[in-house]
Design a protein that fits this description.
Blueprint (H helix, E strand, L loop, with lengths): L3 H19 L3 H4 L3 E8 L6 H11 L5 E10 L2 E9 L7 E10 L2 E11 L22
Parallel strand pairs: 1-5
Antiparallel strand pairs: 2-3, 3-4, 4-5
Length: 135
């Protein structure tokens, strides 16, 4: 059974990601990310400013869609899709976040280009529910 803290932190992460990536509301996003935010990513410069600067540099068509999300106490992992940012393929990412006192304080990611059903050796989609036609 999921803990109350884990459920609270999942909601926090989903709100934070939507605020920053989809709404581009940087003032509100500052309320979710710690000023001492630690970034472990090959694609993002250090700190909260590095993340915000990256998003500001991307086209306004950037969209984030969350998929599966799990939490254990102060750690949240969300499997999601980044699209509309100008690359040839969408990115499928597993974002791992550590939460302290209601703020995102640390982040790791695992990112790969999204393969279509036809490109995937499994024939299954990389993101979203497994539809009956893929079983």
């Amino acid at each position: 059974m999921a803990s109350e803290l884990g459920e609270k932190n999942k909601t926090l992460v989903l709100r934070a990601f939507d605020t920053l990536f989809n709404k581009r509301d940087y003032a509100t996003a500052e309320q979710f990310w710690s000023p001492q935010y630690i970034q472990h990513s090959a694609h993002i410069a250090p700190g909260r400013e590095g993340l915000f600067d990256l998003i500001k540099s991307l086209p306004p068509t950037l969209r984030y869609a969350a998929g599966t999300i799990v939490a254990e106490d102060n750690f949240v992992i969300v499997h999601g899709r980044f699209s509309g940012f100008g690359a040839p393929a969408n990115w499928i990412a597993a974002d791992i976040l550590r939460i302290e006192e209601g703020l995102l304080v640390e982040h790791w990611d695992v990112i790969q280009d999204e393969a279509t059903k036809e490109q995937s050796k499994s024939g299954a989609p990389m993101f979203g529910t497994t539809f009956p036609q893929y079983k």
